[in-house]
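[job 0412] stage=fold_complex status=start
inputs:
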Amino acid sequence: MRNEILHKQQIVEIGQWIYHKGFVSGADGNISYREGNEVLMTPRGLCKGRMAVEDLVKTDLEGNQLAGSLQPSGEISMHLEVYNTRPDINAVVHAHPVYATAFAVAGLSINKPILSEVVLTLGCIPLAEYATPTTPEMAQVLRDYIPRYNAILLANHGALSYGETLLQAYYRMETLEHTAQIVTVTKILGRETLISNEDLDKLFAVREKYGIKSPDLRAFGCPVTESSDGSGQTYTVSKSELMELIESVLGKRQ
Ligand SMILES: [Zn+2]
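[job 0412] stage=fold_complex status=done
writing structure:
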């Protein structure tokens, strides 16, 4: 791995950021960096605010340990799933930030277009189904979401973000938590004004122009969002109509 020490130092630094910002408590959370077939990983059971570069572990993309005296994080399978699915991604951050995790506990994704910059950078932040941490179930429930999103809420657990660089993966976690805070305060205020579908189209045009490869807010796992300016149409369907619709999409009832 080229510049290994620099990447290790950056992981240690991001560990301090996530700990001191309250994105994790105790020994929670994990951070990794991938180059080629090698992965630098935070170790199991160590506070991210007190890590040293010597504590980091190196594995291959199958999770076999290549270097380091400590054990890799128990949640390594989640990181490897991202790397094995997304060749464009080189860094992963997993944490339990309070507001984002509260959304994950409440069973809510962040899928409304409330902030133009978040629409551009993260699009929708879906909620992946609950899975037991540290087991292969975790990677399995994320499988459908990883190709389409750059940040995911993990039901009754926390959040996952990733990027081309360690800094980008960290900033995405920060943006996710900041957005969750704003959505929460907006709910307290009791009113929300959404970006209209027309303005969303303009935003997505800007995204393409600047080569931003964020997912479309209206993609899989996050429903189409109603425009708030009255131009969006609302459809009401009964349960039986909905079942009929689902059956017609999935094929005839057996
Ligand atoms: Zn966790």
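[job 0412] summary: The chain has a mean pLDDT of 86.
[job 0412] exit 0
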